[in-house]
Amino acid sequence: MKVLLSGGGTAGHINPALSIASKIKKENPDAEIAFVGTPNGMENKLVSRAGYPIYHVDVKGFIRKKSLKSVMENVGVLYKALTSPVKAAKIIKDFSPDIVIGTGGYVSWPVLRAAAKKGIPTAIHEQNAVAGVTTKMLSRVVDKVMISFEESENELDRSKTVLVGNPVNPEMLKADKAEERQKFGLDAKPYILSYGGSLGARVINNNIFEIIEKETFKGKVHHTHAVGSYEWRVRESEIKNRGIDKKEGVDISEYIYDMPSKMAAADLVICRAGAITLAELAILGKPAILIPSPNVTNNHQYKNAKVVADAGGAVLIEEKDLTSERLAEEIEKLVFDKKRLSDMARSMKALAIDDSDGRIYNVVKNLTEGKNE
What we know:
Elements: E1 2-6, H1 11-27, E2 32-37, H2 43-50, E3 54-56, H3 68-95, E4 99-102, H4 108-117, E5 122-126, H5 133-138, E6 144-147, E7 161-163, H6 170-174, H7 177-183, E8 191-195, H8 202-213, E9 222-226, H9 229-241, E10 250-253, H10 259-265, E11 268-271, H11 275-284, E12 288-290, H12 300-310, E13 314-316, H13 324-335, H14 338-349, H15 356-368
Parallel strand pairs: 1-2, 1-4, 2-3, 4-5, 5-6, 6-7, 8-9, 8-11, 9-10, 11-12, 12-13
């Protein structure tokens, strides 16, 4: 089996593609897998580290801001939009895949469009509750649209959609709360895990820093907070000057390298609302305070978070409404109310799809065997 995967721009598009590749390799060790990304995207680092070859198609989205500079840059964007399908078609001709799978990002559009024109089986995976522009465009030409939230069906051709969920780190499926708490030496006090993404989120850090500095929950909880790589770089001296890294019961760091263990041990998670993060929370049944990023296309993190909050698995606070007082109040309401945490955990767990990679593999298998089921 020869598989061509295309996705880029953010880890939210790239990691699902890598998970799909890993599952295909597990089931078909002889499978030949390659990726298509943009020349400068983070997919180059992540895909190369995973050991897969990567081809390049130069494509990007239009700049919506009205200015002379934007108009000039959009001329280049238009040129890339017109030439990218030709480059994608050449890659497909050279690699000759049995199936082409997209996981989002602008680069998926020319690749899957070119594959569909050649009659090669195609599928796109949508991570978010609200389908992105690329998914909506491609849904007209691909064979299958794999969705992660039932709500996505409302804006897509239901005859093509199949609910598969978001593939997550396999370690999440194996992590046990009691074992992880014992490993970290945690006592019966509630354990809070908070973070704002790999780079960090300034607004979340500002409010978490205030709560830690004021010692709002001193002696009452254990708290781990990841600042994020960029935020750590620009605020490390501030953290030390304010003594935030020396407070009782607080573990503050740049990045969390053992996320499956930390998340499994937690009683409450405070984080953004990216699709993969929500899938991880659901797999582990973790109550959460979700603070969606407003700086994303179509405000999709808010829509992701609302699905979870409406189901009872999380408290949703929009960034514009976030204050340290509001956040501390919500933490207080949750971490010391075992019944409410238990109810939220059940609601969160009910959203989990723990066989996502298997469902995706079945779609791939059916399409390559000529079954459009």
